[in-house]
Amino acid sequence: MTHHIPVVEQILSANDRIADENRNRLDAAGVFALNFMASPGAGKTSLIEQTVRKLAGELRIGVVEGDIATSLDAERAAAAGAVSVQINTGGNCHLDAVMLSQALPQIALDKIDLLIVENVGNLVCPANFDLGTHRSVLVASIPEGDDKPYKYPGMYRGVNTLVINKIDLLPYVPFNMDFFQRGVETLNPGLKTFALSCRTGEGLDAWLDWIKAEIKAYRKI
Ligand code: MG
Ligand code: ZN
Questions:
Q1: Is 7-220 in CATH node 3.40.640.10?
Q2: If you measure from the C-alpha of residue 168 to the centroid of ligand 2, how many angstroms do you get, rounded to a whole number?
Q3: What's the rounded mean pLDDT across residues 164-181?
Q4: How far is the CA of 45 from the centre of ligand 1 (A)?
Q5: Residue 10: pLDDT over 90
Q6: What is the number of other CB atoms lying within 10 angstroms of the CB of residue 125?
């Protein structure tokens, strides 16, 4: 007897329906949206801060911060210059499409070009819930270790962009990049990958150029 399986499928299909509605709202306003996922401490908020600071004057950026508690990350994003909204999930370990649909009316979508959603720090379930964003970005980091693709295959399979953050720590931390990237390639062949350091700025330009190119391509659709 597997009564729980249809229930899970219903929840996911309800989520997908609302995710499509979110995407339609974003598309109607011409807003390109990214969903940042990662373990806690990988540097999602730091990547948001750097992205907002470096693209200031070129792109208007909104940020939705998902956290179990506090508005610390929304304050950091706002200090960097983003229009920011905090969602507290009240214990929930991931964002879902309903939570984003409730946050969207708090942002003037006609006044932004790019929306970054920072998901709850968690490598297990966030990738299972489409939010209605256009790209999902996994932020990995060197101190987490090179075994994470092997331990969290669902997350590495469920995204279409990978950022490897904190590469400035490579000389100090045992991390075999070949082993890591072999794991990634097995799960998600050809995954678009950026290696960078939010602290030193190394590798950030390629990431920023990619965002600008993606937005340009999105506007042509
Ligand atoms: Mg954060
Ligand atoms: Zn969860």
A1: no
A2: 31
A3: 98
A4: 4
A5: no
A6: 17
Q: How many CB atoms lie within 10 A of CB 134?
A: 18
Q: Residue 121 CA: which ligand is closest?
A: 1
Give the sign of the dihedral formed by CA 207, CA 152, CA 121, CA 21. Answer: positive
Q: How many whole angstroms from 2 Cα to the centroid of ligand 1? A: 37
DSSP 84-136: EEEEE-TT-SS--HHHHHHHGGGS-GGG-SEEEEE--S-SSSGGGS--S-SEE
Is the pLDDT confidence value at 202 over 70? yes
Q: What pLDDT is stored for residue 11 in this prediction?
A: 74
- This prediction has a pTM of 0.94
- Domain extent listing, the chain: 7-220
Ligand in nearest proximity to the CA of 128: 2
pLDDT of residue 4: 62
42 Cα: distance to centroid of ligand 1 (angstroms): 8
